[in-house]
Amino acid sequence: MSATFKKVVSRVLIALIAVLILIQFVPYGHSHENPPVLQEPQWHSKQTRQQFKQSCFDCHSNETVWPWYSYIAPASWLVQKDVEEGREELNFSEWGSGRDGEESEEIVEMIREEKMPLENYLLLHPEAKLTNAEREQMIQGIEATLGMASGNWEGEEHEEEEDHSH
How many domains would you assign to the chain? Predict the structure, then answer.
């Protein structure tokens, strides 16, 4: 290797380290708050809740476990964004708040089609990966929790009846 190449490589490494240090001061991704749990669904069983806690709660509840890398940018930015978006869509700690994600069919679809948990989450949390049997248990558990019968949520049938009476 030439001396010029070594200088260029060392300067690039120094610049990279400087950037990594400087981005730690960006005021995003450091606020690791877990607001109070207001209301959870009336879980069908302790097992159903445990399965959802293991695979979903880090992004979809106010009981997020913030790992060490969630304090270091740029990973902290990604984790913060995923948690904010997850809580916005569906939050098991603020159940009944009217979020779109509370619709039982959507929860079942996301699990059945393996859209959740997210692949990037599973890379660092392999314990959250679901086997086919666990996936079916979760689907049955959430259907029982939300009062679904054969894929139809009883609450929706009731709403339809109310709409026809107006």
Answer: 1
Q: Tell me if 152 is assigned to some domain.
A: yes
Domain of residue 56: give its range. 43-164
Strands 148-149 and 152-153: antiparallel
* Spatial contact of 89 and 100, defined as CB atoms under 8 Å apart: yes
The length of the chain is 166
Centroid of chain to Cα 165:
39
Specify whether the CB–CB gap between 23 and 73 falls below 8 A. Answer: yes
Q: 149 phi and psi, to 5 degrees? A: -125, 120
Q: Does residue 52 fall inside a structural domain? A: yes
pLDDT digits (tens, 9 = 90+) for 57-103: 999 999 999 999 999 999 999 999 999 999 999 999 999 888 777 87
What span, in angstroms and rounded, lies between the C-alpha atoms of 156 and 19?
A: 52
